[in-house]
Design a protein that fits this description.
seven-stranded mixed sheet, 2-enoyl-CoA Hydratase, Chain A, domain 1, Pdz3 Domain, alpha+beta, six-stranded antiparallel sheet
Length: 788
Amino acid sequence: MSCLKIKICAAIAFAVALCLLTAAGCSAPKTASSTATAPGTLTPLAPGPNDAHIAYWTARYLEETQYSAQRLDKAMSEKFFDNYLEMLDPRRENFLQSDIDGFMRYRTNLDTLTLGGGRADLTPAYEIFGRFRERFTQRTDYMNQLLKQDRFKFNTDERILRDRRHAPYPKDLAEAEGLWSRQLRFDYLQEKLVREFSLTNGGTILPLPKSADAEITARLARHYNWTLHYYTNWDGDDVLQSYLNALTHAYDPHSDYLNEQRAADFKISMSLQLAGIGAQLTNDYGYCTIASLIPGGPADQKSGQIKPKDRIIAVAQSNQPPVNVVDMELSKVVELIRGPKGTQVRLTLSPAFDRAARPVVILTRDEIKLEDQEAKARLIELPDDRGGTNRIGIIGVPSFYAPIGSDAHSYVSADVARLIKKLEQEKVAGIVLDMRNNPGGSLEEAIEFTGLFIKEGPVVLARNSVAQVAVKSTASPSALYSGPLVVLINRHSASAAEIVAAALQDYGRAVVVGDISTHGKGTVQNLTRLRQIIWPATPAATNDPGTLKLTISKFYRVTGASTQLKGVEPDIVLPDVLNHDTDIGEGALENPLPYDTLPPNVISSVHYDKLNLVQPYLADLRRNSETRTATNLDFNYIRQDIDEFKKAQADKTVTLNEQDALKERKKSAAERMARDKELEARKASEVKTFEITVENADKPGLPEPMPLMVTKTNGYKGVDFSLENYFKTNSSGLANSTINSNKISTTNSVPIITTSPVPPDAMLDEAENILEDYIPFLSKNATLTANQ
């Protein structure tokens, strides 16, 4: 058995700038005229020769290793079954109730089918997916027929349910067709509204040409057929991936089965590095398309031979024949493009400037460092009352990244240490750690990171499935930085970010500010490769058995309280829309582990030096912050957004009346334009901001300050938004383009160019204000140096 030696506190999103931009449903037909596959012509799917062993051993390992130590019994079978249906049909609009009734014989039997006889019976996985694929094909065919026949009118009071996750399945095909019809009408109306109304035309409703109906129809048909193509091109690996994730999620929401591709993506997201060509890819209805090039990568170094919007038509390995990748799923194209450092790959392109051309570009794969996802700092220079300046630092920590395996590259603790040293060299008076939207990462790195701010002592406690508690401590003899510290969090700050925020709060080392709580993920995962457990099961087995990411322990604060479900509550709560979103946080996930605390006898043995650098000043800091946010214009805007969000959450439906929808859009647009106008009128800030990266942290001096103003186009002077003018100025490209008010030609008009201050970040601005309040308090307090 081979366990990768890193404990993971959160699953970092796979959508990282590896050599792709990952997108759900990343394979598609080339044109809108693609014909949906009839149910009778769908290629049957069957498990691979090793899949039954993979499923069996995944279930066995879950029983023996996952934190809750639950057997795969009848109760777990029900969760497993329900999860699989939800993964395939989360909005409950494809399966019929009769389908669900037919599958119910499996609901309490997946335990015996999975664990009986040493090989799992995967019949339920393929039968259920096969029915889903048939229904989705029926749905696509039906919607395509409606697109050909219907002339859509939106003048009734009809509304569509916003969220169908808990709605009943349609009882029969007729009821399903009613749902599909309403969804189609909603999709059509959204396309129509985008063309009719946009902020860029000054909030004017744009009359549409007669061709608009055909263009909207073609666009929707292309989208529906693209989605159908994705599902009908699933292979056995895709089915197994979804089925086993339904099983792991029955135990907890953070345990996952990762097939070979997903495991590679996870390693890249943790390590911020890969061997590839250095291009971000996306899927454009069946075409693998260059979205952007990573500076300094092999593709970027080809002197213009590869450019954004170019399409990759074929991929060849070294001297091997090329493989056509048109209509291939994006993840599979990425598998072909990735490879060991120093090897060659040949790409056949369809350039954006000449789609008929087919140049071949030879690239040598190299190691790509994803620097845009590293920690970064900003030095803020503020004028003071005496005509001088004060300096504070902001360090953005996007994740707790660390290498997986033998690679020795980016560690977040080492990177942040370099940034701190640079900020201290530049004489900052205090630092804000911005950990908003940080999903977590390496547990070891969270501990090392905390040690930058406190001396040797416990950081977090971890309890395993047999109630053994391990104290995880930082070994730092002294803190690298012992000055004033504010930690900014939000409800998307999770796992390792919560460990750090909790420790710094419990030590009294930092003022924690932000949303009402963090995410509430208080669990630790471990990666285990299945290869050495079950490989090869049969001589014909060719698929890699994958990797299990399983929850193995819960972590606890040094006070003994878990952050599971409850998260970390800040010392100062700031207004934010996320505070009112009931779909955010651990409690919104299926099957989360419960909140609990460690027993007193365990906590009594945990000793740490509480610094008490926050509590004496907290009442004053809160009062000052509340006074500012009560009158601050940006927080007034946030409060308005909160009111609108609450109304939207309370209303479970969306209108299908065009005039009502336009009124709502005009109202929102008027508010947005008023805010933009107010921002443009603001006095330019005297604050100077300097961006410091890991790359330039060791260089002397500071880079050029970041711009204080941004320039944008806000509509056009003298534009006639009538259809006659639209046709007059767009006749050359009208036949092949989608009419969109965002693309109004400005041939005979003058753009309205405006400059305004950089859009404010109200929460970060207030965190800076709190730090400025905090600095004078601590400057009078000798205990500030207690860590040194």
